[in-house]
Amino acid sequence: MESHLLQRSASLVRTAAQKAAEDVLKEKTATLTTIMAHVLPSLMASILSAFSAQFALACLRAITDEQESKRLLQQIDKLVTAPLQTGLVQLRTALALETNPDEETVDQRNYKATRYSDALRKLDEALVLAKDDEEQACIHLYRAIASTRIPGGEKEARLHTAEFATACEAMAASLILRASEEEAAAKRNATRAAEIAVDRGVGGGGGAVGWSMAEDKIKKSQLEYTARSQAQNAVAMKIRAEEILECSRFLSAVI
Length: 255
Description:
0% strand; single chain; mainly alpha
C-alpha cells in the first residue's frame, strides 16, 4: 500500500506558502504556481527574505503539529521512528523559542540555533535508516526547512532541497508512467466491453441462450466498471505527480 507521504508533503508546503503569502504580502493565493509566477518575481529582496522566513516557520508548525506527526510516524518504517520522532520533538522545542528578531538577544538566538542543530542531527540519523524513497524525500524536506533556521545554513538548506527535488522528479516520473499504463489498460477494457453485444431489452428467453446473454451483460458491466476505475486512477496519479512537482519547484525558488 502506498503511503502518499510525498503528496502529504506537497499539501503541507502549499498550505504553508499560502499562509506566508497572506501574512507577509496580505495576498490570498490559490496555488504555488500563482505565487511563483505573480508574487515572487515582484518582491524586493528584503520582503522575499521575510516571506521565506515566514514560510519556513509555517512549514515547521505544520510538520511538528502533534496530529500531523502522529500520522507521519504511523506510515514510516519502525527503524526510522525513534530518531525522526526525537527530531520532531526538538523542532517543536526550537519553534517554541522563536520570537521577534528585534527582541531576541544574541544568547537566545544562539541557543535556539543549537536546538535546530540538534533536530537536524536526528533527521540526518533518520535519513540513514530510511530505505523507502518517499520516507527519504520527506526527511530531506524536513532537513531543508530546519537548515533555514540555523545561521549560515542557507547553503545546506539548498542542498537538502535539491535532494528533495530529485526524489520528487523520480516519484512524479513513476506516477506518470503508471498513469499511462492505467490509461492503456482502461482503453483495452473499454474496447473489450464495446465488443460485447448484449440485448438491452428486458428478458432474453430462458435456457442456455438466456444464461449466455446474462453472462455477457455481467461481463460487459464488469469491464466497463474496470475501465472507468482505471481511467480515474490515471487522472489521480497525474494530479499527484503535478502537485509533487509544483511543491518541488516552489521550494527551489524560495529556499
